[in-house]
Design brief:
heterotrimer; A alpha+beta; B alpha/beta; C mainly alpha; A: alpha+beta; 4-stranded antiparallel beta sheet; 20 helices; about 55% helix; about 10% strand; globular; B: alpha/beta; Rossmann fold; 3 domains; about 20% strand
Chain lengths: ~475, ~425, ~210
């Protein structure tokens, strides 16, 4: 009697395996890597701005995190052998590659190493390895770096401000002249000759990568399309209210990490929904959140936060998606919510953006200018009355902050915590300074006083 | 059709060859099974003499379909033989005396049957659905709900299989005649023959004969795998959705081989004792369509058509590549719902990787299920109630498309079994 | 000695029982506030355990919770007033989390589950062991958070009136070393999570 092998499942299989899909993904990243090398390494070398190390530095910048994440994955698999996961042919280096492409180019090497360790360990391996993580690991590493090393990273040493930081500095609105022209015209944005991180500058290459990956059936094609479409639509609405032409939504879509994040980070298969309706809702809310972060908060870039927040909701979106396959009424409420938010936020930001946020509790009593030095006497409402202080700013930095009059009941706590010194130390990123518990209103008032004074100073200097 | 996939169909191996017969097996092993139900009462014992078409077993329960012998001869024994889903079933071993003595049944002219006689003839000749499931056909015509449409499923969407195609190329007149007769007997409003858009040769041939049957309509359906499923076919051909059975909306769906079996039953009083089986695959020397008797051991038929190319390196599949099961040996016997025997090259190693949650299985499922979520919540009864795995038809598309090689078809099948 | 060991390993308030996490996360920004909080909780726990186990027989079942809150609240208020008078710096340092000891799950949970059922000596010893375990654990968390997040180890700063002089150990810092992440609330959760994981791993390895 003959003996044959028995197998489960169908006897013919599609030739698109997960290894092939990852291979196509890396292949689509190659033009972006080469362009980044050309722009940051070869061109400065040709123009004799850097030496031979600077020529290869972009490649090292991308190679180092990839190597570290790959090694971490190998170690993990040696420690936890899994019958179906191969230790040495893993795809852990893709995380490191993404990390190198989204971190700012002036990040020191040590921070790069720490970030890749963190994103590999905490972003992926602690959840159980490949296929088990909830959050996008590269974005977790980026978030950690942003929170821990805000001071180090915001030092603009060589490069000028990215278009979005410029956009934020101008108060969140502007016209073609001061938003786009400092960098050329919109074609520069499209081809990528603008400052930014390694991966996000070239819009053209990201779009080409999207089409390539769609043809090879590697990514979830609905997500980038609807995500970018939502951002375009909402910024079109905002631009319409501000009487800005079609260039404004195009500028918003092409600047920042939107295209790169939409094509590569939001479509990460493990951390995005599997059902079609779930994917559509995911992309809609991603668009809403990105526009909210760009216009409604003081952060210039909202893509990373929106993707991480929506990663939390993937579970719910899959539930909605699976139930609505049989009966569409389950998905009506989320869609309704999405549409209301799109229209509501679009109109709200359209009407209110750029308006000066006047704090009615803040008054400038006197303002003196002495060559480069501005001396303010300001007043802010605190807990039990007004606090009066003298703030001296010189060359973009506050040199002294002296409280002249106050009637606060818990001012001692603020003094004990050396809060004024803390504010002066962290004056570059005041949003991150915590208030004192037990003297919340007083410490908030002091912080706001400093923030509003600095805002006024910026306006004075720019005019 | 939105879901489903266009597969590479590999039908060239057997499409244009003539049908050959293998009708002289020494022993036949009649499987006592219908629709995976082995609750069949044997009505003969050892030593009994039977004729072609004698009843040797009857199914218990509500659907009391009889099982017939396919040869004349002596009942030898009751043995266990593999069935096409991999299980072993009890079979009646009959020794063939090669006389071909038939059991006589009353017959009339096709169009002169009344509805009751029609149903009775179908039941007594044991006609069952030959597209794969084996549902007793008479039940579809024996309902109180008035019927108005018959859809004949001639799509044969699974790759490699050409049994229905060659049947139609050789017996189209009989099939069209039967369809017309069924329409008249049951007072139907229309009869539809559904074929795939890409089947141009078939359409050209049908076109020559369809002129005489003014009331038969030919409908072209999409080329995808999955269109052969009853629900998808009714949706595409008639744009009708139903809850459980198409009978609710007055529609009957029959496979085209079943129509030919109805022809044999009505015209000659022949019980369902033989069928066309496609023997194909790259490891057979001469892939063929063969007319075989029910109960014939498949190994004999393969030997008669030339045998295997090699004796090792073989994957033996009963059924098509998408819905069939691999068997550990070639002891399989022909049952009325076996449409293909596929002999493929062995796989070197099985690639199974962790699920990357790409969602391709969800986008391709014709029954609108979410296989990835069913796999995740295998143990969670409450969540499974929302995911409705009982709607799965085991078409195998999710399994085919999965990049990680996860055996989704088996997983959902075991979940379904667990829920019963 | 064995009693204290039980409080640290098997019935560790934070790592095993995971109670009182709110105040843990809040006061562990410096080592000093951590051990001061630990001492306060131990003292309150000690006295409440005595009173609760003494009156356990006369309290009806359906008013147990309000009665115990009352008892613990009394002791916390006494303690608070004492601190406000004699050690006002410490009072300011612990801020709002000192009155919150009243509803700290460790105190209330132990009262409801253990002290209302056992004798006085047992309750006293148990409170002592839980308190010491809590103190050592909270010290560990604060040490990790402050050393990694701020680059200092504050041994005596606000309580200098009690001990005499200030004593802050400054660790060598550079551009990369103090990671601000650990001083944030997110870092608190993160450190706690990692430490609980390590603790459970140690327990598993020991078996």
């Amino acid at each position: 009697m003959k003996q044959f092998h028995v197998y489960q499942g169908t006897q013919i299989k599609d030739s698109n395996t997960s290894s092939k899909m990852m291979y196509h993904l890396v292949l689509s990243l190659l033009p972006i890597i080469l362009f980044a090398w050309y722009q940051r390494g070869i061109v400065p070398y040709m123009e004799e701005r850097t030496d031979i190390i600077g020529l290869f530095y972009p490649l090292l910048f991308l190679l180092l995190p990839s190597l570290i994440t790959y090694l971490m994955e190998v170690l993990f698999h040696i420690h936890h052998p899994h019958p179906f996961k191969d230790a040495f042919f893993n795809y852990g280096f893709v995380i490191g590659l993404f990390l190198g492409l989204i971190l700012p180019f002036q990040t020191p090497v040590v921070i790069l190493i720490i970030a890749s360790l963190f994103s590999s360990l905490i972003g992926k391996l602690i959840f159980g390895g490949f296929g088990c993580n909830i959050f996008n690991p590269a974005l977790i590493g980026y978030l950690f770096v942003l929170m821990s090393y805000g001071a180090v990273m915001s030092v603009d040493v060589v490069s000028s401000a990215t278009p979005l930081t410029n956009f934020k500095n101008l108060g969140g609105i502007g016209n073609y002249h001061n938003l786009v022209e400092p960098y050329g015209n919109l074609w520069n944005f499209f081809f990528g000759t603008i400052p930014g991180t390694l991966g996000e500058t070239s819009g053209l290459l990201c779009i080409l990568a999207y089409f390539y990956l769609c043809i090879k059936k590697v990514i979830k094609w609905k997500i980038p399309l609807i995500y970018v479409g939502t951002v375009f639509g909402m910024t079109f609405l905002i631009g319409g209210y501000q009487n800005l032409d079609i260039w404004f939504p195009i500028f918003q879509v092409l600047s920042g990490g939107l295209l790169f994040g939409a094509v590569f980070m939001a479509t990460d298969p493990v951390t995005s929904p599997t059902t079609p309706i779930g994917q559509i809702l995911y992309a809609l809310f991603l668009g809403i959140l990105t526009v909210f972060f760009r216009f409604g908060t003081s952060y210039p870039e909202g893509v990373m936060f929106s993707i991480l927040i929506m990663n939390l909701f993937v579970f719910i979106l899959d539930q909605v998606g699976s139930k609505s396959r049989f009966n569409f009424t389950h998905a009506i409420i989320p869609f309704f919510l999405a549409w209301t938010l799109i229209l509501g936020l679009g109109v709200y930001f359209g009407l209110n953006v750029g308006k000066e946020k006047t704090d009615s509790n803040f008054h400038i009593i006197s303002k003196e200018k002495n060559q480069n030095e501005f001396s303010y006497i300001v007043e802010q409402k605190g807990y039990a009355g007004n606090i009066k202080a003298r703030i001296v700013i010189q060359n973009y930095s506050v040199s002294s902050f002296e409280v002249l009059e106050q009637n606060e009941s818990y001012y001692k706590r603020v003094e004990k915590a050396d809060y004024i010194e803390k504010l002066l130390e962290n004056q570059k990123h005041l949003e991150q300074v915590d208030t004192i518990s037990g003297a919340t209103k007083t410490s908030t008032a002091l912080k706001n006083m400093l923030i509003h004074t600095l805002e006024d100073y910026e306006k004075e200097v720019h005019s | 059709m939105k879901a489903g996939l266009k597969l590479f169909n590999n039908k060239k191996l057997t499409k244009n060859k003539e049908i050959i017969s293998y009708k002289k097996p020494k022993y036949v092993y009649i499987p006592l099974v219908n629709q995976n139900d082995t609750n069949i009462t044997p009505l003969v014992k050892k030593g009994d003499f039977v004729k072609v078409g004698s009843i040797v077993g009857k199914r218990k329960g509500n659907l009391r379909i009889p099982i017939h012998s396919s040869v004349s001869g002596k009942v030898i024994d009751f043995v266990e033989k593999p069935y096409l889903n991999g299980q072993m079933v009890k079979c009646i071993q009959i020794e063939n005396d090669f006389e071909e003595t038939k059991e006589k049944r009353e017959v009339k002219k096709l169009h002169q049957y009344t509805k009751e006689e029609f149903v009775h003839q179908l039941k007594s000749c044991g006609v069952i659905g030959m597209g794969g499931n084996g549902f007793p056909t008479y039940v579809k015509y024996d309902q109180d709900i008035p019927l108005h449409t018959l859809i004949v499923n001639a799509t044969e969407c699974e790759p490699y299989i050409t049994a229905d195609y060659v049947l139609m190329m050789n017996h189209i007149e009989e099939i069209l005649d039967t369809m017309d007769a069924i329409m008249e007997i049951n007072h139907l409003d229309e009869v539809i023959l559904a074929i795939k858009k890409s089947n141009q040769k078939l359409w050209k041939m049908i076109h020559n004969y369809i002129g005489t049957y003014l009331k038969i309509k030919v409908v072209f359906v999409s080329d995808k795998y999955g269109i052969g499923w009853e629900r998808a076919l009714v949706q595409e051909a008639k744009h009708v959705t139903y809850d459980k059975y198409p009978l609710e909306k007055g529609i009957v769906v029959n496979n085209v081989s079943t129509i030919y079996a109805i022809y044999q039953a009505l015209k000659y009083g022949n019980a369902l004792t033989e069928r066309i089986v496609t023997f194909t695959g790259e490891m057979l020397k001469e892939p063929q369509n063969v007319v075989v008797k029910v109960g014939t051991p498949v190994s004999e038929v393969i030997e008669s058509i030339g045998g295997y190319k090699r004796n090792n390196d073989i994957r033996f599949v009963a059924g098509g590549p998408m819905m069939g099961h691999t068997l550990p040996n070639d002891e399989l016997v022909v049952s009325p719902n076996l449409n293909c025997v596929l002999v493929l090259k062995d796989w070197k190693k099985v690639e199974e990787r962790p699920c990357i949650r790409c969602g391709k299985c969800v986008s391709v499922c014709p029954a609108k299920l979410c296989p990835v979520l069913i796999k995740d919540y295998q143990k969670n009864k409450r969540r499974l109630g929302e995911l409705k795995p009982e709607k799965c038809v085991e078409c195998g598309l999710c399994d085919y498309i999965c990049p990680a090689g996860i055996p989704l078809r088996e997983i959902i099948h075991s979940v379904k079994e667990g829920l019963k | 000695m064995k009693i204290i060991w039980n409080g640290i390993t098997k019935e560790n308030a934070i790592f095993s029982l995971t109670l009182g996490l709110c105040s843990t996360l809040a006061v562990t920004t410096t080592v000093e506030s951590a051990y001061l909080m630990g001492i306060c909780v131990t003292i309150v726990l000690f006295f409440s355990s005595i009173v609760v186990s003494l009156i356990k027989k006369i309290v009806p079942d359906n008013v147990r919770l309000p009665v115990y809150i009352l008892i613990v609240g009394t002791f916390v208020t006494i303690f608070e007033l004492l601190l406000q008078t004699y050690l006002p710096n410490v009072y300011d340092l612990l801020g709002i989390y000192l009155p919150l000891i009243v509803v700290n799950c460790i105190v209330l949970g132990r009262c409801l589950s253990v002290y209302s059922k056992k004798g006085v000596t047992y309750s006293m010893l148990d409170s002592f062991e839980i308190g010491i375990g809590y103190l050592l654990t909270i010290l560990l968390v604060a040490f990790c958070r402050e050393a990694l997040g701020n680059g200092t180890i504050t041994l005596v700063d606000q309580a200098s009136s009690l001990f005499g002089a200030k004593q802050i150990i400054y660790l060598p810092i550079n551009d990369y070393f103090p990671m601000l992440f650990f001083q944030t609330p997110a870092g608190a959760f993160f450190t706690l999570g990692i430490l609980i994981g390590c603790f459970r791993l140690l327990k598993k390895v020991k078996k």
